[in-house]
Design goal:
21% strand; Rossmann fold; P-loop_NTPase; globular; ABC_Ni/Peptide_Import; 4-stranded antiparallel sheet; alpha/beta
Length: 351
Amino acid sequence: MAADMSSPTPSPAPLLEVRDLCVSFPSGGRMIPIVEHVSFTLGEREILGLVGESGSGKSVTAMAVMGLIDSPGVCITGSALFRGQELVGLAPARMRRLRGRQIAMIFQDPMTAFTPVYTIGWQIDEQIRAHERITRRQARARTVRLLGEMGVPDPERTANRYPHQLSGGLRQRAMIAMALSCNPALLIADEPTTALDVTVQAQILELVRSLRATHGSSVLMITHDMGVVAETCDSTLVLYSGRVAETGPTDVLFAHPGHPYTAALLASIPPLDGPRPERLPTIAGTPPAPLERPVGCAFGPRCAYVHERCRITPPPLVPVGPAQEAACVLPTEGRPLPPRNMAIATHGAPA
């Protein structure tokens, strides 16, 4: 019998593939690295969490992918392929055709993201008409429909209001409606639940989770809240001081963190069951300023597991589990971190 020579079915190409992304800003006559060698992939209809403390480089990474960094002298290297098209170095005119239509962003503060002198509806209408040849009446009909789909009460009336006339939760819903107005394939959500109360936060997270089903969107979720990641994301990328500390499927990474920084973030979450701790664990110290990064592991000065090998050079990413990698020397030395109980990590916002 002849052997089956049929080739295996190729795996689908990722929607977004970032490789070795570096962002540096000029300061005092030298270039200061803010983001160093960040790599990740985002598949179709996938939600990827980009997590880390403030100043870890999350927003800078997203802004570089979006082509929104225009500071004089900034240096952006590496690759960001969106459906096979290179975004790094793309001409501004071509990038503008992508932004809003195929790649959209939910900004951290909708109060400052919206223009205060125009109504919510006018601003959403404008984005639709900038990318599609439709009439004002058709654009407004889509705006009202989208606001309704986002759970905005009386969307026709809300469309005629100014940003300051809406609550924080309604402004965020309007921002999501604007981001979805041209049905983008990739949605970047930069801490979309900041400054919202817990109930509204839960509603916004449920809305983000539903986008892949209702609009077929992939989401890059930027946050510092591990509970939000556990509630929302399929996979997780942990950044520390502009470098990748760990990456992997969210359930695996939360149950068995491979990097001490990830374990420390999870340990700081209040437990749902068992005895109530007198004090929550904290991470001593603060992240280093970009100019003061140590030669070796950036987390070394704050790490309870630090030793001499950590201080020589930044550890490379090594496999620590199924599709999971960590930039730490512990796994190569056969000293894995203790497993975590998922019950303490998935509390997030209430469903």
